Amino acid sequence: MEDIVIVGGGQAGGCAAAALRQSGYTGRLVLIGDEKHPPYERPPLSKELLSGVVPPEKTYLQPTSWYTDAKVDLLLGVRVEKIDRTAKTLCLSTGATIPYGALLMTMGARARQLARVPPSSSVFYLRTIEEALALNLACDRGKRIAVIGAGFIGLEVAATARKQGCHVVVFETAKHVLARVAPRVVADYVQQLHEQNGIQFEFGCAITNVQAGAPSAVLLGDGRRFEVDLIVVGIGAQPNVEIAIEAGLTVDDGVVVDEFGRTNDPAIFAAGDVTKHFNPLLGRAIRLEAWQNAQNQAIAVAKVMAGGNDPFAEVPWLWTDQFDMNMQIAGAPLDNDSIVVRGDVNARSFTVFQMSGTKLVGAIAVNAAKDMRFVRRMLAKISDFDATALADSNVSLQDLSR
């Protein structure tokens, strides 16, 4: 039985290791991660871990003893510098090499950085446990915090910092929050929620400079200067594809794989945030940065590597928690020409359906988790739906999902 090596110690890597053992793979299994922590979940970084509610160990997928019991060779604090596809070996940052029979790439993604503004004692990014712990120490009550980016990470950090008593201003180049993923009815609701909790927004602003120091400052194109104690940057993520490119694997905003996680090398697979994978339900390739995808795609690909033949085919789904709001998003619409609102926005619980003609292509549930269970079924059907029925709260979504 050939050795399997997993490169990447995040959630995808950890889930894949467990799935391989659960699927009956008994050969040598090596998991390599460049952090000192074993595989962990990232959603708590901007919430529970940032606020100090939980210690790092609570984010771990498995207790460290599990890897010994499951006979998984766990190499932490080690980077893979190069893949030699001809020799089927990996060159490590320690200077050692390690052979593989099959390779699973789960390198994930890293925080996109501001040009010419490296991390410092007052400029923070949030992608790792260590970054969350450092930011937690800096977020003392009364501190002035600038958050650059009004996407999920920026808004979650803003909400957490505000609840800790910090003064927060969010800068966004777009005209509203969540510009890439949410229609205005949802964006306006989220913005109002944050403003009601004391957060200030600056939209459509051109940031000309960011100055680190004490104090730090954000300078805008219109001449305004915002002095703050610290700056948090949340402007997206980029996949860690450098070693894949150097190895000659196909890369296009992620390591390109099919629905089984296969790359253009039959011995190499990939899963999680690092992949641009074909989704049979959507009929196209997508790259997702989401907890569900990192977990479930990794499990599906691990089962294929263990001898299975089932594709990974799920409706994309993610969630965010901010203040007292839970928002869940399903689908990955390229475009939608209309929306249908179900429920009362003013009542703080509603679902927005995104339509392309009569086709349901996406949905966002705000404080309406019960709806999402049926919405995901409806999206998987790729069917026509009547807008009037979708908007009518007296019409059962369970019935529509059938």
What would you note in describing this structure?
With 402 residues, the protein is an alpha/beta fold. The chain has three domains: 4-110 and 237-305, FAD/NAD(P)-binding domain, CATH 3.50.50; 113-233, FAD/NAD(P)-binding domain (3-Layer(bba) Sandwich), CATH 3.50.50.60; 324-401, FAD/NAD-linked reductase, C-terminal dimerisation domain (Enolase-like, domain 1), CATH 3.30.390. The chain contains eleven helices and 26 strands. It has helices at 11-22, 48-51, 64-69, 129-138, 152-163, 184-196, 242-246, 291-305, 369-381, 387-391, 397-401; strands spanning 4-7, 29-33, 72-76, 80-84, 89-92, 97-99, 102-105, 109-111, 123-125, 144-148, 167-172, 200-203, 207-211, 216-220, 225-228, 230-233, 237-239, 255-257, 268-270, 275-279, 284-286, 317-322, 325-331, 338-344, 349-356, 359-366. The protein has a five-stranded parallel β-sheet with strand order 3-2-1-7-19. A five-stranded parallel β-sheet has the order 9-16-10-11-12, with helices on one face. Helix 6 (184-196) links the parallel strand 11 (167-172) and strand 12 (200-203). Helix 1 packs parallel to helix 8. The longest helix is centred in the last third of the chain and has 15 residues, at 291-305. It is globular and about 60 Å long. The model has no long low-confidence stretch (mean pLDDT 96).
